[in-house]
Write a structure and sequence with these properties.
This protein has 194 residues and is mainly alpha-helical. It has helices spanning 11-25, 31-44, 47-59, 61-69, 71-77, 111-114, 119-122, 124-132, 134-140, 177-183, 186-190, and strands at residues 88-92, 97-102, 150-155, 161-165.
Amino acid sequence: MSSEHDHHDDPRALRAEALESLLVERGIVDPAAVDGVLDYFEQQLGPQRGARVVAEAWLDAAFKQRLLEDGTGTVHAMGLAGPEMEHLVVVENTERVHNVVVCTLCSCYPWALLGLPPSWYKSLEYRARMVREPRVVLTEMGCDLPADVEVRVWDSSAEIRYLVLPQRPSDSDALGVDELAALVRRDHMIGVAR
């Protein structure tokens, strides 16, 4: 299993591409409009918003505590909201615990913080295997964890979404919020990277 954006073997992605091509060909959809929507989700509503939340938590202990106690209220106070974030729970990675998020029923995901969900997150393989053999799947995705680290799997749903607060890099004390946010990737906030 890979966390790369290779969707050529995903039948749903192929169907979506074929449908988009057909709609463009028939003049029903403007390709620039499709590009605009994708740009909005990737650039304006993308993982940099979640990365900023993580960076703020790394720098401000009071903010971090509020985030862990009331993820929804804390991100709403930052102006980050959306129907997919009506109940956001933030779980923290530590030296002893590594959290990872999956949605076994479909692909519930905090879009307003993380942007478009990766194709692997929506795949049946990821959704089924992450709950059965999380350590194996994490290793396959390049996230090797020491044997003494507990892995906790959080199952998102239509009612509740999760965000992983990754550990702050040990060599980042001199960095400000922008530099810290630049270190955080979407995969860290899902928990498939450390």
